[in-house]
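Please check our next protein.
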Amino acid sequence: MNKKTSQISINIELGDDKIPEHISWSAPDQNQLDQPVKAMLLSLFDGQNKQTLKIDLWTKEMQVVEMDRFFYQTLRSMTESYFKATNNQSMARAMQQFVQYFGEQTEIIPKEKN
């Protein structure tokens, strides 16, 4: 059986201080080539060692307000993925409450009126 493989590439251009100046990613199967980004979070789970491996990078140009929005959207997405993977509605609801709190405190979203 011939299995299809796919590749996603991440390119990081470092400055003299070893801080990312440019980050881009490519996914040729999706016709996505050298798409520039300001930040990335990559988490991989090592099933053998039961450890999460991660790479978190952002460029010098990433502003705090952009980082707040990036984390808000990432936390929201993680909550949705967690619920899809586990169907644990109680924990997903608790996570969503934190996401709401984070969004309000960083002023990414307006505060809910009680």
Observations:
- Helices lie at 64-86, 89-105.
